[in-house]
Amino acid sequence: MITRIVKLEFEKDxxxxxxxxxxxxxDVVNSFPGCYGMKLYQDIERPHIVMTxxxxxxxxxxxxxxNSEQFGEIWPSIKPWFAEKPQAWSVSAYFNGFxxx
Length: 101
Prior knowledge:
With 101 residues, the protein is an alpha+beta fold. It has helices spanning 15-30, 59-66, 69-78; strands at 2-9, 35-42, 49-56, 87-91. The chain has one domain: Alpha-Beta Plaits, CATH 3.30.70.100. Strands 2-3-1-4 form a 4-stranded antiparallel sheet.
């Protein structure tokens, strides 16, 4: 399993449009084959910055999503709203203290 973290920084006047758009597509990503779940985090100090946090069965499952028709419709819709180039990381857990709580 891998975790994918993507930082998205939007133009300040576009964050509400993104959040509204996200509410309409979140289940598409969350239920994509190989996705074990997704969260969207919003920065408290800079609410125009969000991060997606998702768990994937494998890098292949993530690539299947990135090459999917759904991604091909989602990404071009939000790309014009970016203030900065998105940053993304695929990571594995070295330590997980949440499991013990």
